Amino acid sequence: ALTNLPIQLVPFDRDGFFDELAARVGTPEPQLPQSLRVVRDSIALATEVWRQLEIEWTPLAAEVEALNREMAQYGTGEPMYQVIFRERNAAERVADEAQARRDSAFAVVDRLQQQSNAEMERFRADLTAWENEAFAGYEEALIARMEDAGNEIVTDTTDADGRASFIVPTGEWWVYARFPYTLQDEFYWNVPIEVRRDAPTTILLNAGNAEIRDLF
């Protein structure tokens, strides 16, 4: 269950609305080049490796710190100091090896990002320029569309059980939500439903009825 996820109930087809706005532009929406898509996916994979190594290193470093604090309670000539000292040195070697693996993995992420930053920024600039042109006057168009539909967009946030609820007039509605599930992709929902008077309408948002969209 996804908690604190904003859900909207929209009285018109949101995708169709944005398609109409985009159609006013003489050029198609810029698409992420395949070369950048490959690099983006490589960065996501390398980042996941780095995060896992970070998770492995963190408790090892904490163990070394704990042994250092324990060792500080004794004088260097005391037998217990020597016992902890040897244990600390062994733990430190393990932690240092884990840190080296973590740092090496991060270096891969950094290198890939540095190699693609300029090209990715150019793509983002092109996309932003296109969006600014396509969606100029968005607020006015949205108000007009809601007036045509005779209803306004309604929003709720999912609770601890992943549930959201609405009370709206009968008719056709679209359930809209989005959730980033990886570094490069998101689940996107724009699911039509029909609200009837005689019984509650229930819909489950999951991977099966979601569209997977790129995140930039």
List keywords for this structure.
single chain, 216 residues, alpha+beta, 5-stranded antiparallel sheet, 53% helix, 16% strand
Question: Your description of this structure?
Answer:
By secondary structure, this protein is of the alpha+beta class. Helices cover 53% and strands 16% of the residues. It contains 4 helices and 5 strands. It has helices at residues 14-22, 34-71, 79-134, 138-149, and strands at residues 6-10, 154-157, 171-180, 185-195, 211-214. The protein has a 5-stranded antiparallel β-sheet, with no helix packed on it. A hairpin with a 4-residue loop joins strand 3 and strand 4 (185-195). The longest helix has 56 residues, at 79-134. It is elongated. The chain starts with 5 loop residues before the first strand and ends with a strand.
Topology:
Layout: E1 6-10, H1 14-22, H2 34-71, H3 79-134, H4 138-149, E2 154-157, E3 171-180, E4 185-195, E5 211-214
Helix pairs in contact: 2-3
Task: Return the average pLDDT rounded to an integer.
Answer: 93
Order of helices and strands: EHHHHEEEE
> Which percent range describes the beta-strand content?
15-25%
Helix count equals: 4
- Report the structural category: alpha+beta
Shape verdict: elongated
Report Rg.
27 Å
Sheet with the most strands?
A: 5 strands, antiparallel
SS elements, strand count = 5
Give the termini distance in whole angstroms. 25 Å
Sheet with the most strands: spatial strand order: 2-1-3-4-5
Helical residue percent? 40-55%
- Which residue ranges are poorly predicted, with pLDDT under 50 across at least 5 consecutive positions? none
